[in-house]
Amino acid sequence: MVRESPAQAETHTLRGATDRPALLTIRDIVEEMEPLATTALDDYLHPSVLEVVLDDGLCAADEARLDIQWTTQDEYKFHYTDTEGVNLRWGKHPHGGDYIHVPGLEHYHPPPNASSDPDEVEASCIAQSPKELVTRAVLKLWRVAYHTGSYDPLNSGSNPP
């Protein structure tokens, strides 16, 4: 197993404090748009993540979860995991130029394991920054993948999806 050096790990982290008002806005959008979702902050007053439990998952998964982080620097992670062990995530944060196929900060770690291998990380189809648009885009991409029974649509939307 390859371990990141402290300097490398620092370039792959979200900068800034957790943005509680942003997580509350994202929670409200998820509750409005996704009938399969139940949301909860890990700590209501000082949250670090918004947990979104999905009553069904993609493809063969019976259940799934989205863990959402958003910072005061407008950096984010939307991490999907499910009962089949599939992981993927959309993110916007520094990566030290390690993701060779990613020209900016927005990137996508594809299934099945949300690899951080530089050859596997892709530029994200979500290039908008406002939390409302990013959240709606993630939910739309997830919903299209859910209805098609395929992971392929997860990073194939036009901007914004």
Key terms for this structure?
161 residues; alpha+beta; 7-stranded antiparallel sheet
Task: Give a written overview of the molecule.
With 161 residues, this protein is an alpha+beta fold. Helix content is 24%, strand content 22%. A 7-stranded antiparallel β-sheet has the order 1-2-3-4-5-6-7, covered by helices on one side. Strand 4 and strand 5 (87-92) form a beta hairpin. Helix 2 (20-33) packs parallel to helix 3 (131-148). The radius of gyration is 15 Å and the shape is globular. It starts with 5 loop residues before the first helix and ends in a 13-residue tail after the last helix. Mean pLDDT is 92; it is low at 1-10.
**Biggest sheet layout:** 7 strands, antiparallel
Uncertain segments of ≥5 residues (pLDDT<50)? 1-10
Calculate the terminal CA-CA distance, rounded to whole Å: 36 Å
Helical content (DSSP H or I, runs of 4+)? 10-25%
Mean pLDDT: 92
What class, by secondary structure content? alpha+beta
In the sheet with the most strands, the strands line up as 1-2-3-4-5-6-7
Radius of gyration: 15 Å
Count every helix, treating DSSP H or I runs of 4 or more residues as helices: 3
Query: Strand share of the residues?
Result: 15-25%
Broad shape: globular
